[in-house]
Write a structure and sequence with these properties.
The complex is a heterotrimer of chains A (253), B (180) and C (551). Helix content of chain A is 23%, strand content 15%. Chain A is α+β, with helices and mostly antiparallel strands. Chain B has a single domain, classed as Rossmann fold (3-Layer(aba) Sandwich), CATH 3.40.50.700. The chains are: A alpha+beta (253), B alpha/beta (180), C alpha/beta (551). The complex binds flavin mononucleotide, iron/sulfur cluster (5 copies) and FE2/S2 (inorganic) cluster (FES) (2 copies).
């Protein structure tokens, strides 16, 4: 599969002059290029929108739904990471309704697998944990599903703990689009969806994995980690991504 | 019987926890002394009262609910307490005791009392509380007024909750409390 | 070879003459419902009997598509006698053939004044049960491919679209989006390569409208697609059909081959520069692959998971090209609209819902089967007149429309005219046309649980609210039906319904809460009885003893 199918039809900027739109985000007048998303423009203007599946430098998926925003005049909600800006758009990123929904979505994510921060390798360096703090989610009111999930420690340098996976699929995207190895994929549907390497073989037996570690660095949680790290010792360094992208773009020109 | 008092009546209790949260409570040390004058610790593993008193203002509950006995205690607390604080990750999420939820209770007991036993392997069945199949957080059984995550919660956060309770304002936990 | 209108007319005449040269024409239903009661054997024994009685010159036996009243199949229909026999067995053949000249076999006779037949109005199904789906000549004899000729030779693409717009036709795949508007968007797209896709994934449990059309009249869909291709400027089409419909697949394959051989598909159709080709793509039966963006991904060979819209397929579809996606029934309406004009179509139905709608009647109803009625027909007419009411003397309770994305319509709305807007108003949707009738033996909490289980297992798992939310919702419903629910559970149900509906990525998640919402809206008392009194009025839910934790 290609989880990275083109999401938004971005006008080709090399043949078309780029249009600049003016719009409002949270009552502020801002401007953005026609091929930029609400998320990009909001961040340029220092407006915080929580994200989980989005990562600078990776193709968008619009799947975690934490970045939902309201657009005046529409009853629907829009994922800021995949919605392109439009002229005169009036975006609200932070209403009581949205805050409430975001908190509940986060509760659902926490309820899905087995998150025990106290014994987790990324305790203290985890995007999911940070989101709980940022969104003021102090507890989960839904039933914990406590699914039996496994750990794949077959790789010599890394390990995969399905208990901590939030199915953001950053690993799939970075491995396919940046590393070009396409080791990761997804199997199963709905609540049974899970990450697999190659054809559902142990990661250590993967013939495609180059061992580059990119997936480990972009994984927002403790699902992918370096071996030999004990509780709270693992920190992630996804900063290589925007840098790589920039260098590649320059190489193209 | 203690004389009538205007001090805030505080209780603390352990359910299925490791006592680490209570240790963190004691970590407030110096600052604890400062508020000591305005609180009355009416029930706690740290004092030797046996029965849970009536008219408690605040109860800090450490630990998850894992057995019928835990739930009985929770209901008793709820009946006699104005504000319940889920104190620490075990109380808030199930945390470490909840790690057994992925397995069947039977498997867990077999592993700990039979396979790993060095002396007289036997699964205890008498005089112990009835263990639930699933460990659950405190709010799965009773209403909780305040959640104080952390394993254990930072002393700073505990102190903020305590002062807020004493001052009758909502606590400001931003940046002070997180899971883990 | 390029086909001319004269060729077409000649084929039609030859076919009609050939059929009418027989004194008696016996039509045996060979659609899936009747085939499953061995109508193929019935057909064979009828042919055999005709040979035995030496009546080959006078009797023609034809395998036709669904006659509609599938519940009492196998059905056969004899013209010009105008008799219909039900539940025909192979052993009935001698009697049937023997009685052709005398009185009909009364014990098999389907009463002639059946409101089931007389109350219907057929456009989409006009050929079903009348023509032979496996022979293009039979379709042509019924006026088939004339509309394509008319469109290609006498109308500009713009004019075709104008007719479709004027007809007021709305998409029959579920959402009811105006078809003319969709066509216009694709027409206006400036890219050179465009596609037409026919959505034949039909995944709603209990729905079999599209299946019947494909099995009984496949050429109608092909003609509709070709006209659509001409109108929007596409020269390639795909039919995405589920592999669970082997008969439909086989008949489509055959139909496409016939159409190509005759030249109604291929290059220079009817001597015009227009070329159109159709390929089949088989789906593996995932409900979510009926969602248009997932369907596109599946055709492209990728995992069938939806993506956020916009951009809509009309701008950015198959392989990034503008793509027109329409449902089978939508496309089946196109040829008649072109032939008779948009105004004619707009004269049928209600103000905002034009034409007819095919419904699949299922559940606790006497005449399970396929019907087609004008939009605006009341539920009462559908359920009691056409459907023959509720069996076993039980009471009507509700009807579920729109399957797992829809809602239930209770008794007080029986006199409501059925169209897109009225159904939406009462919390249901038209959906694709499945109608599941429930009697007083149905527990509405159990019904909600059934549909939630369906959505949970069909959720693709891409977005968090649907993936986890449907699982949580199902868990709560399961608890309530087991007698372990609490009053707070009902609040959590409402809360999650709102959340999942508002924040999910695609239509599946956005509509998954509908059955729970609508049963809560009309039957909340049943939920409360389950949690407060551990009582299931209908006696469906086996109330287990309360959970360990609450003791
Ligand atoms: C989960 C889901 C399943 C769907 N299944 C079908 C289907 O089986 N058949 C269909 O025609 N449309 C289905 N649709 C609707 C399609 O996405 C699309 O709207 C439709 O095919 C457009 O055709 P129309 O305009 O002719 O209705 C489904 C939508 C969703 C969200
Ligand atoms: S992945 Fe993050 S949220 Fe999950 S247990 Fe580890 S630290 Fe906690
Ligand atoms: S280490 Fe590199 S190659 Fe291996 S799975 Fe991760 S991203 Fe792919
Ligand atoms: S392993 Fe990590 S990066 Fe991959 S889907 Fe799970 S949480 Fe996301
Ligand atoms: S939260 Fe942590 S410190 Fe507190 S009782 Fe549980 S395990 Fe011990
Ligand atoms: S709503 Fe459900 S089916 Fe649709 S993308 Fe999300 S998980 Fe998949
Ligand atoms: S960050 Fe936008 S949906 Fe995940
Ligand atoms: S299948 Fe024979 S009547 Fe419908």
């Amino acid at each position: 599969m290609t989880p990275t199918a083109p999401i938004a039809q971005k006008p080709r900027t090399d043949v078309n002059p780029v249009r600049i739109y003016t719009l409002r985000i949270d009552g502020r007048d801002v401007s953005g290029r026609e091929d930029e998303t609400i998320l990009t423009v909001a961040r340029q203007n220092g407006i915080f929108i929580p994200t989980l599946c989005h990562l600078d430098g990776l193709a968008e998926r619009g799947a975690c739904r934490l970045c939902i925003v309201e657009i005046q005049g529409s009853p629907k909600l829009f994922a800021a990471c995949v919605t392109l800006v439009k002229q005169d758009m009036d975006v609200i990123t932070d209403s009581a309704r949205i805050r409430d929904y975001r908190r509940k979505i986060l509760e659902l994510i926490f309820s899905e697998r087995n998150h025990v921060c106290a014994v987790c390798v990324v305790n203290g360096n985890c995007e999911l944990q940070d989101l709980a703090v940022k969104l003021g989610m102090t507890h989960v009111r839904y039933d914990y599903l406590n699914p039996p999930q496994s750990v794949d420690a077959s790789h010599p340098r890394f390990s995969l703990d399905h208990n901590r996976c939030v199915l953001c699929l950053r690993c799939i995207r970075v491995c396919k689009d940046i590393e070009g190895a396409s080791t990761w994929d997804i199997s199963g549907r709905g609540i049974h969806a899970r990450i697999i390497s190659d054809l559902n073989q142990p990661w250590g037996e993967s013939e495609t994995c180059t061992g580059c570690g990119k997936c480990v660095q972009v994984c927002p949680t403790g699902a992918l980690s370096e071996k030999g790290k004990s509780v709270a010792e693992m920190t992630k360094r996804p900063q290589f991504l925007p840098y790589l992208q920039m260098m590649r773009k320059e190489a193209e020109i | 019987m203690s004389p009538p008092t205007t001090k805030t009546r505080i209780a603390t209790i352990w359910l299925d926890g490791c006592s680490g949260c209570h240790m963190s409570l004691l970590d407030i040390d110096a600052r604890l002394a400062a508020v000591a004058g305005s609180i009355d610790l009416v029930f706690s593993p740290l004092v030797d009262t046996r029965t849970y008193p009536q008219n408690v203002d605040v109860c800090f509950i450490e630990g998850a609910a894992s057995s019928g006995e835990d739930v009985e205690k929770l209901h008793l607390i709820r009946r006699n307490t104005r504000q319940v604080v889920a104190f620490g990750d075990c109380a808030v999420t199930g945390n470490v005791p909840g790690m057994r939820n992925r397995f069947a209770l039977r498997e867990v007991l077999t592993r700990s009392y039979l396979e790993n036993a060095t002396h007289q392997p036997r699964i205890p069945d008498r005089d112990i509380p009835h263990l639930f199949e699933r460990v659950r957080p405190v709010h799965a059984f009773i209403d909780v007024e305040m959640f104080l995550p952390g394993c254990p919660p930072a002393a700073d956060a505990i102190f903020e909750v305590l002062s807020a309770l004493l001052e009758g304002r909502p606590p400001d936990l931003a940046g002070r409390a997180r899971f883990g | 070879m390029t086909l001319t209108i004269e060729n077409l007319q000649e084929i039609a005449k030859t076919e009609t003459d050939a059929v009418e040269s027989y004194r008696y024409r016996i039509n045996v239903c060979m659609a899936a419902g009747c085939l499953s009661c061995r109508s193929d054997v019935v057909k064979a024994s009828l042919e055999e009997e005709i040979r035995r009685q030496g009546k080959e010159k006078a009797c023609l036996v034809r395998g036709v598509g669904c006659l509609g009243l599938c519940a009492v199949g196998p059905l056969i229909d004899i013209s010009p006698l105008n008799v219909t026999y039900q539940a025909v067995q192979p052993s009935d053949a001698p009697e049937i053939i023997g009685s052709l000249t005398g009185a009909p076999v009364s014990r098999l006779l389907l009463p002639a004044d059946q409101p089931f037949f007389s109350r219907q109005k057929k456009i989409v199904l006009e050929n079903c049960g009348i023509i032979e789906p496996e022979r293009i000549e039979s379709y042509i004899a019924a006026g088939g491919y004339e509309a394509l000729y008319q469109a290609l030779r006498q109308m500009s693409p713009r004019q075709v679209i104008d007719e479709v717009t004027a007809s007021g036709l709305r998409g029959r795949g579920g959402a009811g989006f105006p078809t003319g508007l969709k066509w216009t968007t694709v027409y206006k797209a400036r890219q050179a390569v465009k596609y037409v896709v026919c959505n034949a994934d039909e995944g709603d449990p209990g729905a079999f409208m599209d299946r019947s059309v494909l099995e009984s009249d496949p050429h109608r869909v092909i003609e509709g697609m070709a006209i659509a291709g001409y109108a929007v400027g596409a020269s390639r089409g795909y039919i995405y059909v589920r592999a669970e419909y082997p008969l439909a697949v086989e008949r489509l394959r055959r139909a496409i081959k016939q159409a190509k051989r005759l030249g109604v598909l291929g290059e220079n159709i009817f001597n015009t520069p227009f070329a159109f080709d159709i390929q089949l793509r088989l789906g593996a039966g995932a409900f979510v692959c009926g969602e248009e963006t997932a369907l596109i991904a599946s055709i492209e060979g990728r995992l069938g998971r939806p993506r956020p819209r916009p951009p809509f397929p009309a701008e950015f579809g198959l392989w990034g090209c503008p793509t027109l996606i329409n449902n089978v029934e939508t496309l089946a309406n196109i040829a008649p609209i072109v032939r008779r004009g948009g105004g004619w179509f707009a004269g049928i139905g209600t103000e905002k819902s034009k034409g007819t709608k095919v419904f699949a009647l299922a559940g606790k109803i006497n005449n399970t089967g396929l019907i087609e009625v004008p939009m605006g027909t009341t539920l009462r007419e559908i359920v009691f007149d056409i459907g023959g009411g509720i069996p076993a003397g039980r009471r009507f309770k509700a009807v579920q429309t729109g399957g797992p994305s829809g809602g239930c319509v209770p008794e007080q709305f029986l006199d409501m005219p059925v169209d897109y807007d009225s159904l939406r108003e009462v919390g249901a949707i038209m959906g694709s046309g499945g109608m599941i009738v429930m009697d007083d033996g149905a527990c509405m909490v159990d019904v909600a649980k059934f549909f939630m289980e369906f959505c949970m297992s069909e959720s693709c798992g891409k977005c968090a609210p649907c993936r986890v939310g449907t699982t949580q919702l199902f868990g709560i419903l399961e608890r309530i039906t087991a007698g372990d629910g609490s009053i707070e559970d009902i609040d959590t149900l409402k809360e999650l319904c709102d959340l999942v509906g508002a924040t999910s990525l695609c239509g599946l998640g956005q509509t998954a809460p509908n059955p729970v919402k609508s049963t809560l809206r009309y039957f909340e008392n049943e939920y409360t009885a389950h949690v407060r009194r551990h009582h299931c009025e209908a006696g469906v839910c086996a109330m287990g003893k309360a959970r360990e934790a609450t003791t």
